[in-house]
Structures are given as C-alpha cells and as structure tokens.
Design goal:
44% of the residues lie in helices and 20% in strands. By secondary structure, it is of the alpha/beta class. The longest helix is centred in the C-terminal third of the chain and has 35 residues, at 483-517. Bound molecules: 3-methyl-2-oxobutanoic acid and zinc ion.
C-alpha cells in the first residue's frame, strides 16, 4: 500500500517573491486555477500583510479555489495572523501558515530574541491562528541549522496548541540529504506528540540539493513536501514540484509513495508559469526542459527506436506533452483548431476560440505550418489581451542605416482610434515612445527578451518585457512572426496591466476613504 505525500505548492508565495517572477492579480488567479487542475493539496497563495496587492490576490484565490486548501503566510505576530485570516476567510479549506526563525544565528542577529521569547511567540501565534481555522501550519525558519533539542521543544509546544502541520525548512539550502533526513527522523522519534501532526519538508536549492533533500526528508517520515513549479524561489529557488512528483511516480516501486498530482497537467502548468513571468527554464531542466525528452546521440536514437525503454524512463505524454498527429495550416478551419486545442488540454469558450482563430489565420498565412507550441503561444497572446484597455490597431516603422528610426502607432481604446508617432534609438524604442505619448503612461524598460517558439525562419517569436511604472513592475508578452510587432504588443500588454493595476489601486483607495468616512 503506498503512502500519500501531500503536495504544498508555494509558487505564488516563495516563488513569486523572487526576482523576475512577479505576477499581477489576474496572473496569480490564473496560476492558482491551473494549480488546482494539477491537483496539488495546498496552494500557498501569498503573504497578506506584505502588501494590499498580496492581500487582494490571496482573498480572490480563497474565493475561487475550492478543490484544495488555500494557505496564507504570516510571521508569528498577532497582526500578521489577523491579516492572513481576513484574506483567507472565503476559503473552503483555509490554512494559516505562521513561521518564526529558530536557529541561534537568526535569533541573535535578526530577531534579537532569546529562545524562550521565540518559543513564547510561536505558541501565541499558533493559538491565535487556531482560534480562526482548523488547519494551522507552523514553520521553523532556518530549521535545518537549528539546535535539534530546541526544535523538539518548540515543535512539542506548537503541536500542543493544535498545529496540524510542522514544517522544517532548509531555508538557506545548506543541508545535504543524509543530514536533512536525519533531522526529520530525529524529530519524529523524539517529539512525543508528533503523531498528532504532519511533518513537512521545505528545501531551497542553493547547493542544487533541494529535491534530493526533500526526498530524504520523505524517506525519513515527512508526509508533506513544499515546492514550486519550475523550482522558482528565493536565490537558487525551491525544490521543483515537477521533479518531486515525477520522481515519486517513476520510482513508485522503490519508494512506495504517491501524490495526488495529475502528471498530465505538469507541462501545461510549467509552460503557463513561463508565459506569465517570462522566466524560462533551462533547456536541459529535468522533466520540463526542451531537451528533457530529446535523444540526440546516434546510439540513444537507435535504442529508443528499437524500444523506448532503453533510454526513456518516462514519456513526454506522461507529463502532458501531446504529439501532433496533424499539423495545422492556413486551410485548417475553426473546428480543426478547436479540436487541436482540446487535444492539447485547452477547452476554449466561444470568445476564446474566436480570438485565437483570428490570430491563427493571420499566422497561418505567414507561416506554412503551425505547431502545437505556436498554438499555445497564440492562445496566451489573444486570451491575455481579450479584455485589454488598449489594443494595437496599426503600426508603421522606418529604420535602417543613416535614417532616424520612426514609428507611427495606432491604438484602439474603447471605440476610439488614437494615433501618434515618435522617433527613437531604433524602431522598437520609437514605437514605445509613441505608445507613451498616446497613453500618457511612461514605463522604464527593465528587461526585454525574445525567443523562438518553434523552428524555421518563419517561426513565431515570443517577446517578454518587464517595465517599471509608478514604482511597480509589470510583465508583458506577445507572440508574433514579426519581431517588431511582437515587441510592441508585449509592451502594450504590460501597459494594459499597469492601467488595470492603477484602476484597482484607485478603487481600493476610494473604498478605504468611504469606510473611513462611515
Ligand atoms: O524558506 C523558508 O524558511 C520559508 C519559510 C517562511 C517557510 O520560506
Ligand atoms: Zn522558503
């Protein structure tokens, strides 16, 4: 009989807070809905006291996600816990996740507290959280570098207060598998009331050992694993969900564990995160990298052709990569497009199909064959701009040697066409300046990247930009066979995110002013 390992996904908290991985409100909701389809057991949706934006997104995820627990992080203080609970209230399975550092280094230099004071804070935090909801998780930050006797003492105390999960993070990614496994085993052996709780592992990847350490923790008795999609997270990241889930599944006979994760949703979830954040995984990344299932060496290819078992320990299909039986082109109709999206796991509404079909016909005209990755890029492009304030109506650029790069841009806002032109360092810069003149929103370009989605000289280029506006960072993306159009649409996508955020901030400020007046 296999034992169940609970999967706690922290992509939207530990992952999202790391550089290059920020998401806006709508993006976080999309990601949470996909994590629900992936069938994780817990989604850590954010850190509500950190900002109003975090609070709002945790609350919305708590409202929308019903298939799993929704957790919110809080330090071990009453104010943090109250704020986390405010955000979590609408959840059908809310979990307050409270933490405090327990290592002597953190106590001495960061918290400037004694062990007794930290123990007292931890107990009070769990007591407060427990007054709100049944599921309460307590984490010992820097647990792997904490004194084991003290860890036992603190765990016994928080479990007595009702902590349903106790988590032992390797916060700085310092541990090695034998050592980390031993910490988990010792806690399970020495904490007298440990059977009333679930022990959890949370490992960072500074030495590239996050997944190995997590598996060692599980082998020694932990039954919850905390991880992120594509391994995003602080510094070198967190343990990667897809690697853990596939290790447990592929080596099921040896390990004897199982998770509730639906492996066929893995690729789509990984791809969605890349699309939303612009943070690509390396080609040779385990499980979801572009090369993960590519056999290049002649001997390997020969073996795989004779029998895939020779070199393939898992199949691309098992993580949801579907192989096309038919490639779409300009003669393919709406029905074929809908069918292919459905095979790829996307059930489109009529509006989404209309939007995707519009861009598909345009791209199929420019490109002989439209591949599956192109279709996913098209979908992301059209769906993300469906409810946009500004859409690109027309674009004309002049550039070359010894000419001043100039762009003329036409944007549609509601039913009005707004036009302007500008010069710049290059055609893209000129178009960005024209957009700034039209929208009145000026952004500082922080990052720009372009990557081909499929292959061939007519491949679709996926453009990602990151811009800073009003002190906030916004992502923008687009897919096009024309790199300049793609660059302009990606910038506009970020501008649209910024204007939605401005609108939402205004609404919040008005609501606060109204409630203060009452
Ligand atoms: O790495 C860590 O210690 C954490 C805790 C807040 C759980 O992310
Ligand atoms: Zn962490």
């Amino acid at each position: 009989m296999s034992q169940k390992i609970f999967v706690f996904d922290t992509t939207l908290r530990d992952g999202e807070q790391s550089p290059g991985c920020s998401m806006n409100f709508e993006e976080k909701i999309r990601m949470a809905r996909q994590l629900e389809r992936l069938q994780v057991d817990v989604i850590e949706a954010g850190f509500p006291i950190a900002s109003d934006g975090d609070f709002e997104s945790v609350r919305e995820i708590a409202k929308q996600v019903k298939g799993c627990s929704v957790a919110a992080l809080s330090r071990a203080t009453i104010a943090d816990i109250d704020r986390a609970w405010e955000a979590l209230k609408p959840a059908s399975k809310p979990r307050i996740h409270t933490f405090i550092a327990t290592s002597d280094i953190h106590l001495k230099y960061k918290l400037r507290k004694t062990r007794e004071q930290v123990l007292d804070d931890a107990v009070k935090a769990v007591r407060r959280a427990k007054s709100y909801c049944e599921e309460v998780e307590f984490s010992c930050e820097d647990g792997s570098r904490s004194d084991i006797g003290y860890l036992c003492q603190i765990l016994e105390a928080v479990i007595a207060e009702g902590a349903t999960v106790v988590n032992i993070p390797d916060t700085v990614g310092y541990s090695i598998p034998d050592e980390y496994g031993k910490i988990i085993r010792t806690l399970i052996e020495r904490v007298p009331n440990i059977s009333k709780t679930t022990v959890s592992v949370h490992c960072h990847d500074d030495l590239g050992l996050a997944v190995a350490n997590s598996l060692a923790g599980i082998a020694n008795g932990a039954r919850q694993v905390e991880c992120t999609i594509n391994g995003i997270g602080e510094r070198a990241g967190n343990a990667s969900l897809e690697e853990i889930a596939m290790a447990i599944k592929t080596r099921h006979e040896k390990l004897g564990f199982e998770t509730n994760v639906n492996p066929e949703e893995i690729y789509k979830t990984s791809r969605l995160l890349t699309t939303l954040t612009g943070m690509h995984v390396q080609r040779n990344k385990a499980v979801v990298g572009e090369n993960a299932f590519a056999h290049e060496a002649g001997i390997h290819q020969d073996g795989v052709l004779k029998n895939p078992l020779t070199y393939e320990i898992m199949t691309p299909q098992s993580i949801g990569i579907k192989h096309s039986t038919l490639v779409l082109g300009k003669h393919s109709g709406r029905h074929a497009l809908k069918q292919r999206y459905s095979e790829l796991g996307y059930e489109l509404s009529t509006e989404e199909l209309d939007a995707a079909y519009k861009l598909f016909t345009k791209i199929a005209d420019e490109k002989k064959e439209v591949f599956d990755d192109d279709l996913i890029a098209i979908l992301e492009d059209e769906v993300s701009s469906m409810s946009s304030l500004y859409t690109l109506e027309n674009l004309q650029v002049t550039s070359g040697l010894n000419v001043v790069p100039t762009a003329m841009v036409g944007l549609k806002r509601n039913d009005e066409i707004l036009q302007d032109s500008a010069t710049g360092d290059g055609p893209v810069d000129a178009a960005y300046r024209a957009i700034e003149r039209i929208t009145g929103i000026s952004g500082q370009l922080l990052d720009y990247s372009i990557k081909s989605v499929s292959w061939g000289h007519d491949a679709i280029g996926e453009v990602f930009v990151k811009i800073a506006i009003d002190g906030y960072v916004f992502n923008g993306r687009s897919a096009s066979t024309d790199v300049i159009t793609g660059s302009v649409k990606a910038y506009l996508n970020a501008i649209n995110h910024a204007s939605t955020a401005r609108f939402r901030r205004q609404q919040n400020a008005e609501a606060k002013a109204e409630s203060a007046a009452v």
